[in-house]
Write a structure and sequence with these properties.
Shape: globular
Number of domains: 2
CATH class of the largest domain: Alpha Beta
Helix content: 40-55%
Strand order of the largest sheet: 1-6-5-2
Number of strands: 6
Number of helices: 9
CATH architecture of the largest domain: 3-Layer(aba) Sandwich
């Protein structure tokens, strides 16, 4: 009976693979592994790495004192394939993309000498940038959380419980905003409901894109005031 069930399960998966093949969103070729949306070639060769020299920051902005490192995996390509990936993740609920990208990000930071001493050998927590509950209810998921899940799979760093850090201010989309307007938009946007869970720990803020730092720096400020140190910022793209 067990062999018969295995046989029919294999047939079922074969039919699903023919009717709904796992196609790479970037190049249109088969992604090879079931449930994957990006093929290995595109993950490794398609995009431009933003930090080949393993510096403390991939942006031109000055990091706040609380932030020890800001790291982005790839340079953002407005109107290109990476932006298309982010769109599928954020607005079409293809959370598997976030999981794959998170794993790719984790593999790169794992080899970064600036990261290993403080993160991989210390009690740490991943902090996906939280969504306001109204936006979460509308979207149905948090793309930063799906990225964090991929990082967790590679580095075994736990994800902070969802009720620890909250987004208390409903903010507009910051696309097209000036730097000052972004800062004003994000002012006092976060709160820490349970400071004891993060006090004295190394925290890694996780998001999809780093642009000016207005969002992640405001979150880092809130976390630092609650007793967390040091703080890292990891994102998939650097805009």
């Amino acid at each position: 009976m067990k062999e018969l069930k295995t046989f029919f399960s294999t047939i079922k998966q074969g039919i699903i693979g023919i009717v709904f093949p796992d196609i790479c969103i970037c190049c249109g070729q088969e992604a090879l592994q079931h449930g994957h949306h990006i093929c290995p070639f595109c993950l490794e060769k398609r995009f431009e790495y933003s930090n080949a020299e393993n510096t403390a920051s991939t942006s031109d902005v000055i990091l706040p004192e609380a932030v020890q490192m800001q790291y982005a995996l790839w340079n953002f390509d407005k109107g290109g394939l990476l932006q298309n990936l982010m769109h599928h993740l954020k607005y079409e609920r293809l959370t598997g993309i976030g999981h794959q990208l998170g794993k790719a990000l984790a593999r790169c930071v794992k080899s970064n000498t600036l990261v290993q001493p403080d993160v991989l050998k210390h009690e740490s927590l991943l902090i996906p940038v939280p969504l306001h509950y109204l936006k979460f209810r509308k979207r149905g998921f948090n793309q930063a959380f799906s990225i964090a899940k991929g990082i967790k799979d590679v580095l075994s760093i736990p994800i902070c419980s969802i009720d620890t850090v909250r987004r208390t201010k409903y903010t507009q989309s910051q696309t097209g905003f000036s730097l000052q307007k972004r800062i004003n938009n994000m002012s006092n946007a976060f709160s820490v409901a349970h400071p004891n869970r993060i006090k004295g720990k190394t925290l890694i803020i996780v998001d999809d894109v780093f642009t000016t730092g207005a969002t992640s720096f405001e979150l880092a400020k809130t976390l630092n005031e609650a007793g967390a140190s040091p703080i890292f910022i990891w994102t998939i793209a650097q805009a």
